[in-house]
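Hey L., structure's done. Input below.
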Amino acid sequence: MAKLVSMILRELKGPHVLLSKSTCIELGINKGDYVLLSVNKRKTVAIVKDMISRMATVIVSYEIAKLLDLREIDLIEVHKPVIEKARKIYVKVLEGEMDYLKLRNFLIGKVVLNNSLIDISIDGTRAKANVLVELGDNNKLYLISYDTVIKILETEENISPHIIDKQNVELNIPNYLLDSIKNAFNNIGFMIEDCNSSRTCPEFIDLRAYKIVEGFIYEILIICRFYNNILRKEIIDKIVYSIQKSERLPNMVIILVRDMDEHTRSIAHSKGIFSIRIPVNGNGSDIEEAISSRIKCLFETLANRAPNNIGHSILAKIKNMYSGLRTIPRPRSM
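Output:
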């Protein structure tokens, strides 16, 4: 980050800046790169149009000056940001009207700041919109690509504070998915508690499965809400922090995901969080079979690894319940 003196050049158009060459060298910025500008907690994205010889100076367009509420000469922070591809964004048009396809075509290829206002101009039609990146970080920039899911919100529709404040996904968990995991645990004698209605579980937890074995409660916390997401390490960290703040720690945490990379999976396993991949195009039968198979595999693996103590005895009994089932009830179709 560099703190520079800003100047406004009305002849400079759009989201462009001229940046001192020394700053570009210091931050590793090239012509055409995106930069993050910040003044008194106001932020915006800009593109370096060219380098200038003037030291410790950034020259901004009139449009950027308006967004940042700059005075004629002001101090401004310039950051070289991390740019990630946005998986899903929410767009709420605040002023004007815009056709979905035109808006989508306009947004593709753009780099945006999470939870930011953008000006839109298409064929002479102007609009202003708020863009929120699902699971976004306010200190990163996000590229909207062709495979980014874009959801347009109606003017009167509110962006869920759950997404903004907790950086979480919408709780739109299909009933067949909840039924599948409930069935899988009920089949081996676990009781199931719905955390979203009882509100007694740590943040992020959707279901609590528990079973009394040899006088001990074996408790498993289940996270379903990320079933259609490729999970990142940052979310695992938030889950771990939330659970650590709770009154009691579970024996295991299971999380349903579309996928996660090996590094994230390794970190999750080291914290006692085990993932179940949900088939993207699977039907109810495929999903229930995937969940049952993975849970069975988990108990078998953990029972074999556990030391010869009460924990091993409990896991062995649960494992044997699976082995004792002549057939696992056939999954119901959707």
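The longest helix spans residues 284-305. The two ends are 53 Å apart (CA to CA).

-- N.
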